[in-house]
Amino acid sequence: MPQPISTIIFDLGAVLIDWNPRHLYRKIFSSEEEMETFLRDVCTSDWNEVQDEGRSLEEGTNLLIKSFPQHETNIRAYYGRWEEMLGGEIEGTKNILQQLKESGQYKLYALTNWSNETFPVAWAIYPSLHWFDGIVVSGKEKMRKPDHAFYQLLLDRYQVPAAQALFIDDNIRNIIAAREFGIDSILFENSHQLKNELEKRSIIV
């Protein structure tokens, strides 16, 4: 028999916090095409994820400038103007999180791929981050999703039984990794869809 859910684990970026480099680079580039080319070929997701895994912002920036010296100004903007990539809390998810917190029925944790140097900026700005019972930040732990060890770290640190946990993330590879642990998971599309999925599980009404 399935065990009742006692713990809900949230991803943060693009689930609770609207982080997107396009918020910044639309101010810098004159066309969407130029911006998308830059984000695809220069300041890529793969490059950013190494900083999320613990490489310093300075080292990551300098390495990229060596490869693309003609883009130095725009590369430096990535972390130099990083706060401009924040679009605020995603209200629908924030409301769901608040409802779950106020119910008192669930332990609430976050498992996030996030640089340990930039996470304190968001922590200082967004009250909803303080509602969690614990947050595991990849940049601090020097590992990231979908590495199984990162999931295991959260389960062990907070004594969470995998069979009693629910994981929410917008990246399918991270969802697959959680399911390999036997963790029920929701692939986040938007707050309305998340609310429906939680209602199906009788977690919210």
From TrEMBL:
Signal sequence residues: none
Cited InterPro entries: HAD-like_sf (IPR036412), HAD-SF_hydro_IA (IPR006439), HAD_2 (IPR041492), HAD_sf (IPR023214)
Pfam family, one: HAD_2
PANTHER family: ALPHA-D-GLUCOSE 1-PHOSPHATE PHOSPHATASE, FLAVIN MONONUCLEOTIDE HYDROLASE 1, CHLOROPLATIC
Record-linked NCBIfam families: HAD-SF-IA-v3
Protein name per UniProt: HAD family phosphatase
